[in-house]
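Extended Data, panel c. Modelled sequence:
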Amino acid sequence: MDIFAILLWPLRWLIELILVGAHSGLTALGLDFHSGWTWILSIVGIVLVVRSAMIPLMVKQIKSMRGMMELQPELKKIQDKYKGKRDQFSQQAMQQETMALYKRHGSSPLSGCWPMLVQMPIFFALFQVLNAANRNEAGVGLMNLELAQSFSSSTIFGAPLSGTLLESGGNASIIIVAIVIIVMMVASQFFTQFQISNQNVSQAAKESPFFRQQQMMLYVLPLVMAVSGLMFPIGVMSYWMLSNLWTMGQQWWTIRNMPTPGSEAAKKREERLRAQGRWDDHPDNPANKKDREGNPIAPAAPAQREQPMSKARAKKAQQKGKGGQPAKPKPDASQSGKGEPRKDDGAAEGGSSKKKK
């Protein structure tokens, strides 16, 4: 047994426990023991258990991706601040400010990848369960030889769950079923990414480089799934497709009820609440915002645009004193102060009196 199989052994045991438990429950309800649809419904049981356990991680992913898009303007300011500075001190300072920004927003570039990374071992564990069944081998847990043979030979629309598109051997049932599942996998993945990147992003975040990367992933991930679907068995692809459908529905509900402020989804939600007459009293209405003490928070006044100023007006404004009052003009040389005779006037008076004498 290789190291990879040893690492997946506990997960294989857990997958077999859920799969056999669901299959036993379905057959107890009257479903055919060897039917492929009974095994597909058992795979649905795996999806329900795994994805229910991943709900907190999924919510964190949605919030993190939303936060990553929203903080892009601030991240760009940090990058512009240290643009062209390659010394160690500047690079360390930029990294510290960036990490502090991520921490403040509760986001991380890697948090959006965790649901996919967590599910990959499950794909491989289910793949090993099917491979062992194809070799007429019992599993590592509750999957005995009878169940393994039933799982491997069961079919849907004439296509065995262990069949792959690359090894179809011209079997039309395998080709058609595999292509339909691949199309559904790709479509559900594309729509899921589309919901996040186009419906749940504010206009400011759409102008960031991170949004352009998300748009690229919108097409890259479905392409990866399409290529991978050529090699995976129909049973494993069924799990992948069902998991994508779960994700699509979960994100649709989340975006519909908890959209990003300023996004297209938030505008549509406000319109729905207004049509129902619930917006005026709704907590998400900015007019109903309150601080921690329960006092209403007044909406921020819109910032006024600074009017352009000519050079003459700018010079006049600079000459104003403190408090907005114009500075006192300097006394003119031709004018005298109150009660203070000028020396030249006194001298003139003295001269004139001497002439009189």
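The two ends are 136 Å apart (CA to CA). This feature is highlighted in the accompanying rendering.
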